[in-house]
Design brief:
264 residues, two-stranded antiparallel sheet, 16 strands, 16% helix, globular
Length: 264
């Protein structure tokens, strides 16, 4: 098991402001009791309470960039403090949140995380001033599959006739004249998978590597509109792509479960 030095962990917490003052003891803010060891703030327009042991690299609007420090004290975090990014890992087969390298799930996580079909997925969230805005996933997906004609061939996409796992599939067409191998087999090539709603709007955008490696990476994008104003990206092995709907549902539930219990 790999351990980070305690001083590095403390530095990360200070730089990102990810440990609100309420973590030290139960404190009353806005007539609400904040639980110990909990990250609080406004996530996508909703007050949230997130287990501090399960999240990493929490940043708020106005925090200094990496490598920079606060001028003065770290601001007190309240339910009005706008969270703009953080990450966490969740096991999509049962919804369990990874609770850190000294947590109850640490041994299971270490044993399973590098499997070719690992059930653990890595989640990133953009909100606050990093949110793409309504329709952002549609714009990102269309920007990828509607590449300019003068784009590098490996980044030009054509829709394939057959869907996979209920998703439209797009891949680079043609052959590399230098190697006489399909562009789709290039080491930089990725397949793109698209889910649309009834109006043709892209609601899920997934890109997956075609490399012949133990865990070909996929990056899965969706948002939480209209429940929360935030974008989500999830990383996992292509070997579990068939479970993309379950993964999306489990991640969505995990984020919605962060909502403060007594929020209106």
């Amino acid at each position: 098991m790999t351990y980070l030095p305690l001083c590095l962990l403390i530095s990360i917490a200070v730089l990102t402001g990810c440990l609100p003052t309420a973590n030290q003891a139960d404190t009353t803010v806005d007539d609400s009791t904040i639980k110990q060891n909990t990250v609080i703030g406004d996530l996508g327009g909703v007050p949230v309470e997130i287990p501090a042991d399960s999240v990493r690299l929490v940043e708020y609007n106005g925090d200094p960039d990496w490598g920079e420090s606060f001028e003065g004290a770290v601001p007190e975090r309240t339910y009005e403090s706008k969270i703009n990014s953080f990450g966490f890992d969740v096991r999509y087969t049962d919804g369990a949140l990874y609770d850190g390298f000294v947590g109850e799930l640490a041994d299971e996580y270490e044993a399973q995380k590098n499997l070719s079909d690992s059930p653990w997925v890595s989640v990133g969230v953009n909100s606050g001033d990093r949110y793409y805005g309504a329709g952002g996933i549609d714009r990102i997906g269309k920007g990828r599959i509607n590449a300019r004609p003068n784009e590098i061939p490996v980044y030009i996409y054509k829709k394939l006739p057959d869907s996979q796992h209920g998703l439209e599939v797009y891949a680079p067409p043609g052959t590399d004249p230098k190697t006489n191998t399909p562009w789709r087999e290039d080491e930089a090539a990725e397949d793109v998978f698209i889910q649309r709603d009834d109006n043709g709007i892209i609601t899920t955008y997934i890109k997956c590597s075609n490399r012949d490696v133990e865990r070909p990476p996929c990056r899965h994008y969706f948002d939480l509109e209209p429940d929360m104003g935030l974008d989500v990206y999830v990383g996992y092995s292509r070997y579990v792509l068939a479970d993309w709907q379950q993964i999306e549902q489990v991640v969505r539930k995990a984020l919605l479960d962060f909502r403060k219990e007594n929020a209106n």
